[in-house]
Amino acid sequence: MKCKVCARHAVVDIRRHNAAFCGDHFVEHIRSQVARTIKEFKMFRPDDRLLVAVSGGKDSLTLWDILLDLGYDVTGFYLDLGIGGYSARSKDAAIAYAEGRAAKLLVRSLAEEHGYTVPELARLTALVPCSGCGLNKRYEFNRAALEDGFEVLVTGHNLDDEVATLFGNVLHWNVDMLGRQAPVLEERIFGDGEEARTALVRKVKPLVRIAERETAAYSLIRGIDYIVEECPMVDGNTQHRYKQALTQIEEGSPGTKQQFYFNFLRRAAGRFEASEPGTEVVPCVRCGSPTVRWEADGRPVCSFCKTKALAGRRKNEGPEPRPRRGRR
Amino acid sequence: MSVVDVLRWLDIVPESVLVIRDSTLLTRDERIDDEDEIEVRTVLSGNAR
Question: Which of B3, B40, B6 is nearest to A213 (CA)?
């Protein structure tokens, strides 16, 4: 194959665009696609302070690399999840990238902040590891952005992530989730006038036009030493199975993923409400983060605070399993 | 054999991987010789977001 720009030998083919690129023009193509997405969805302004959530993987390091090259004021944020050697190696990758680019990086650890790791949380609460992990990441990313005064939180969700999430939400008709699935989640403010405070920082996903295969190719061509191994706790998770099924469809019909997602945004997303009837979004009585209050719920507590409290109680109860009530 | 032939022989969906030879990415039409050493790198992750 030949590069569609310069006709030199191509190294990456993108079948949904019916195009192939040499290394230099592939990097240029990906960068321009990200710049186009930022502009199209009005994600942030040139002078905004951005916090990018970095895992040490291909998506977040690609995103950070592109934002730095585009000249944005962007700081990385790494959250140590305590998943044994995997977390240690992913942290090393994030730190090595930051040092190589002389970029700013904040590092925090779940164990230091909340007294548990992701494996411990799963064991203590019986939550699926990926659920507990996602809940804690969303909470900590937002907290870090608020505490350090960043205007926008940027995440490396790519086209495959968004398509798999959309697929799952449609399969289960999670209509409130469909109402919230967008490349930009607006800032949430509680209170009025001098009492007003930001509870949720604006959150954006500039990689929604870029497939996972392309962030891996970008990293390789740019010499970004990302952590290739998969998190040991995700084996067989639902999101992964959806991605495999959708990639099989994409192989036979290139462009299906992009059409599914962008046609959803254009034609369907506006038809769904972001919250369920009979609920309202209010501050958590413990931490102040937004949470959903049902009509009968007097003192609403957010999922993060409930989970953290449960983990704390179980930890204090010791290693013996709790007796189950009402079962023989 | 081409890259895509090798992947189908291995029962791997080509869209789910990158194929690398001597630190260089290969497109799906690239020829692979018997003595070539290639890396087939999975790109689909299941990480919690």
Answer: B40
